Amino acid sequence: MSDEQVQRIIVTVDDQNISVIQSVVTALESAGMKVEQVLAITGIITGEVSQSKLEGLKSVPGVASVEIDREMQAI
Fold first, then answer.
1. Who has the most CB within 10 Å: 13, 39, 64, 66?
2. The model scores a pTM over 0.85
3. Which of 51, 71, 33 shows the shortest CA–CA distance to 11?
């Protein structure tokens, strides 16, 4: 992924597509996402993508939302 900034992201799969989450994963990878973890029961996919391809992931069939993965710290 060249010099372009890479974003860590969390993708939520819509309820109707949780049963076919693997096909959503394949479509996300084709759209440029590097998938790191698939939580099939909850419909969550984590990974990273270059900044220029981030918006395109939102139009992948079965995707309910795409969010930037922000680091959280306990206080």
1. 13
2. yes
3. 33
